[in-house]
Amino acid sequence: MKIRNRMADVVELRCHICQNFLKLIVCEDWRQELYRFTQEKIKGPYKVNYMEQHKIMRKKGIENYSIDDMDVPFIVNILCFCPQIAKVSKITSKALSYVKEDRHETNHSSENEPEEELYLRALISLRDLQGLLHTIDLNEIEIPDEQRSQFVMEYSKDIENLKLEIYNDCIEMFQIKKDIQLIISSDNQDDTFFRIFQSYNDKSCLSDENKEQMSRFLIEASNRGVRSAHKYAAMIYLHLYHDLEEATHRYEMMIANEEKLSASEAHELIDFINHMYMKGKQPTDRMMQFVKLIKEQGFNIEETSQGIIWKKRK
Prior knowledge:
The protein has helices spanning 2-25, 30-41, 51-60, 72-81, 90-107, 115-139, 145-184, 189-204, 208-223, 227-240, 244-255, 263-278, 285-296; strands spanning 301-303, 308-310. By secondary structure, it is mainly alpha-helical. It folds into two domains: 2-171, no CATH class; 258-314, no CATH class. The longest helix is centred in the middle third of the chain and has 40 residues, at 145-184.
């Protein structure tokens, strides 16, 4: 799912913004002070919020520990509760709390959320990051103006670029969903599928992005039960993602509940089973049932220890 990559980009950008903001305001001799602060916190009721970073400090040694080792929650805790290291205004603390909540939401993803929810989370996170930059620019005036301005401009540009990519992804996602709905609601699904598929295929030669879009369309169509899309999805998983298990699943979807296979489908299925043998994988029982079906339909094949061969008719 494309949005997973975008969420990773948001996570990385959030971390860099927080780390580099702390670098702008941290005191010179911060390591020893931070170590004392962390030592106290791991003895208190909120020790879970500090244990992981404490382990890193102990493992690397406090003199080798850096701000780049810190994660977002730890940085926010420093900024909000350790003014002897880095002091910020109350309004900046509030903006940081939103960023910390966004990070919590991101890290507790179930991996099963619909795409729309993930895109919304990403956009909310970017909104809160932009709000943090605006707050820093207005309130953290102890940072020299030139440094503050450069910091805000650099990361505002990164936020806008990522936001634009997400908007474009959303447009593509809704277009794909609209096209698949047209196929599903059509009186002739096969004709409608191949007509829409051809439009994606025509554009795929223009750029790698268009090729990826076609792949996403085919996989989503297969997910929604469009039979004509299953074999294309299987080939994508086999040749692009090298995911033999998922490719097997797509071929099984293609021929599920079918009483008869076309000659081309029979050849594709046998080629795939032979590919499994070449990879040292045993075809599933379900796949071997389809081999039996192919035989019963009159296709002249023979099973061997190396795979399945097509026999010439006498």
